[in-house]
Amino acid sequence: MRKVLIANRGEIACRVIAACRSLGLKTVAVYSEADAAALHVEMADEAVAVGPAPARKSYLDKAAVLEAARQTGADAVHPGYGFLSESAEFARMVEEAGLIWLGPDAGTIAVMGDKGAARTAAIEAGVPVLPGTAPLVKEGGADLDALGAETGFPLLVKATAGGGGIGMRRVETPEALADAVANVQAHAERTFGDGTVYLERFIRRARHIEIQVFGDGEGRVAVFPERDCTLQRRYQKILEESPAPDLSEEVRDAMKAAARRLAQARRYRSAGTVEFVYDSEKGDWFFLEMNTRIQVEHRVTEMVTGTDLVAMQLRLAMGQLDDLAEDYGVLDGRWAIEARLCAEDPQKKFLPRPGTLERLELPAADATLVVDCGLRQGDAVSPHYDSMIGKLVACGPSREAAIARLDAALAAVRVEGVVTNAGFVRRLLGLQAFAEAEVHTQFVDANLAELLAEETTPA
């Protein structure tokens, strides 16, 4: 492997390019018309235009991305996260073209990307799953009353092809179930081209815990310290940290063992994340889903373990990953926490606020802070893509120290031209409930009015 095409943009494309450069690999960037002058294009050794600004006509155009690889003689493709990263079809196309796919095989992506199939795979691997139903197809004639009673209320109606909170609806009472199923099925069909849904028990005081895994494709699987991604808004992560606060060693070890079993059963290759929901009232935990890609929050794991997950992906493909450990632990009592800096307005329902970054000053990275950003002062936050400007990941010798370092880093952010969520995130960091790990996945949504009213730190 000598040359890697990065099928992505923004900060993750820059991140992969940097990892390739550290290993002496050449890189190829792809870009849309809107990104012709983007940082990832400047950083790469070569760059190829793949279409107009809309993602479906550029970054999601499988044929155009593959043609870029052919034109430049790239022999591997790294998908980053988002876009085509969890497309089994694209992974298969890459491999059929004789290129190296820097991720799990297409079959694994297909199984774990289907929530119903993923539940089945988890059950077969002896991993506990939430009470729920088999997939329900549209016009399937299911007895919703019976299925709802068996699952228990409140429950979630979830699209099997959904993800990141998309294609999901909470139902409190039996009377509301039929309408919710019909609405989610219709939404899923429009959004994903697949209206299949299933019912799943909803836990009121849930925490979101995930286990990073890395497999060699031959059955050997490494597990890493857990990440806590509980603080969310509408199922979108806001803060991610490792280790998880106030979690017993028994639960940590059990989750890691379950994640390893599932990954081994699939003979998992490359980096992936097994996600769990933890019932903080009862102490029970259940499989949620598996993400078959590198994640936004992978830097948190890297900071507490001293590893480079992207470099590990590359070294595995190069046949150089001879030092894959079975378990990676937290170094020297380290704690790390990440915040996503987004161009969005908390006071206006977090609507994206695209525009030109007339001023962009971020704190300098050092041993206690990673700053990942794919934009520069003068660049535009495009309405065509995600509104994330970048991410800041802080670490310290304790949770309190890591939180303080992140808060100081956010305080040093200076952005003009767009509204950001920096002040809102600082407000969350200062909450007593967060300090005491007394939050749950619905905490922000349940307390949003109060949080916005008390937000006084300027963005």
UniProtKB/TrEMBL annotation:
Domain of life: Bacteria
Pfam families (UniProt xref): Biotin_carb_C (PF02785), Biotin_carb_N (PF00289), CPSase_L_D2 (PF02786)
Residue stretches making up the Biotin carboxylation domain: 1-449
GO MF term set: ATP binding; ligase activity; metal ion binding
Gene3D superfamilies listed in its UniProt record: ATP-grasp fold, B domain
Stretches assigned to the ATP-grasp domain: 119-318
UniProt entry keywords in alphabetical sequence: ATP-binding, Biotin, Ligase, Nucleotide-binding
PANTHER family: CARBOXYLASE:PYRUVATE/ACETYL-COA/PROPIONYL-COA CARBOXYLASE, METHYLCROTONOYL-COA CARBOXYLASE SUBUNIT ALPHA, MITOCHONDRIAL-RELATED
Protein name, per record: Acetyl-/propionyl-coenzyme A carboxylase alpha chain
Native organism taxonomy: Bacteria, Pseudomonadati, Pseudomonadota, Alphaproteobacteria, Rhodobacterales
Designated gene of the protein: accA1_1
